Amino acid sequence: MQDLDELLNIDKNSIWHPYSAMSSDLPVYHVASAAGVRLKLSNGQELIDGMSSWWSVIHGYNHAKMNLALEQQLKDMAHVMFGGLTHTPAIKLTEQLIAITPDSLDAIFYSDSGSVAVEVAMKMAIQYWHAKGDAKRQRFISLRSGYHGDTLGAMSVCDPETGMHSLFSGVLPEQIFIQQPQCRFGEPCTANDISELKKALIEHGEDCAALIMEPIVQGAGGMWFYSADYVKQARKLCDEHNVLLIFDEIATGFGRTGKLFACEHAAVVPDIMCIGKALTGGYLSLAATITTKDIHVTIDSGDPGVFMHGPTFMANPLACSAALTSIRLLLDSNWQENINRIQQSLEEGLAPCRQLAQVNDVRILGGIGVVELKVPVDMKTIVPQFVEAGVWLRPFGKLIYVMPPYIICREDLDKLSKAIVTIVSGIQI
Q: Does 236 qualify as catalytic in the annotation?
C-alpha cells in the first residue's frame, strides 16, 4: 500500500488542481474523510468547512439518507444511456424540479456540470431563434463581473477581464458586456443603473439571442449582491426588445440566498434557467437547463427537429437519485430558519471587519458572507492560517467569503467568523 508521502508526490507532479500550476507551491491538504460540516485531514486535524465544497454540500458530508439513496440505486443500476432509454430517477427528479421552479418552466435538459448547463442554455437560445427563422441572433449580453463557467461558450459570457478572454482571443465568440448593476440588494434600481442595458438592447437587440445573468448574486466573478429591482427591469426590457432571458442559478439555487431560487426575490421568471452545484447535495456532478414550452416546442418543430446536444452521462441514475433525495431533504427541513440563522450569525460575527482598515466592504445575504479587502490575499500564507485556526476557507482575489452547509451550528459559525476577523486583522496594507 502506498504511503501518504508517495501519494502526495503523485498529486504534486501529475494532477492539476483548479486554477493552479502543477509546479505551484500553494498548499494542498489531503482529506481522509468528511462528516457533517467537518473535513478530517490525514494528519488527524479537523476543519470546519466554510465552503460547502464550492457551495454544493448543503446538507453536510456523509449524510445517512443521501448514502442510503445511492446504495439503493446501485442495486438497480449505476448508469444507463439516456438516448432511447429512460429511468424512474430522471422522471421523478423532473417532476420534482418542475414543481419547485418558477411557473412556466416545464422542460428539462440534464448535463454533467454547471458550465455545460450554460453551454446548453446558449445553444438552446441560438437554436430557438434559428427555428423561428432569425438565425442572425447569435450574440449574448452579459454583465461585467459575472461568472458562468470555464468551457469556451460559457467563458465567452464571463467577465472579459477576469474571464481569460485575452488568452483565448480569436477563439471565444465576442459578446456584449455591460457594467454590473451598482444598485445594492435592497435598494431601488435607478434609471442610471439600468441605462447601459437599455442602450445595449437598443443597439444590439436584433442580433442578440439572450441576456444572461446571475440573478441577485454574482458569484465567483466578485460575490456582489445587487438590486432585485434591476432583475425586474431587465425582464421587462428583454420582453420589449424580444430578447430571451437566461438566469444562471447554479450558485444561488436551492436556498442559498434565503429564497429557493434567487429570482424569487424579484418575482421574475426567466425563459431559460441553469441549475447545478447544490442540486445533488454535493454528492455527484449533475446540472440542468430548464426552459419553457414555447422554447422547447419551437426547437422541436424547427430544423433539424431535435435539440443538438447529448452528453454520454446525461441524467445519470445515481446523480438523479442523489438530486431527488437532496431536494426532498431540503424541502422537509427548516431550511429557511437555517438560512436566517446563518445570516444573523454572519452579520454579528463579521461586523468587526467593518471597522478594519484592511477591509473595503462586508456583504451578507442569506447563507453567504463576504469580506472584500483593499488588497488581494496572499494564498500561500492565508490558507495555512485558516487551516491552523481549524477552518477551511478558500479566498480569491480580494475576497474572503463563507458559504457553509445549512446544518452548521452557531458555535461553528462563530469559529468561522472569529477566524476571518482575526486573520484579516493581521493583513498588512
A: no
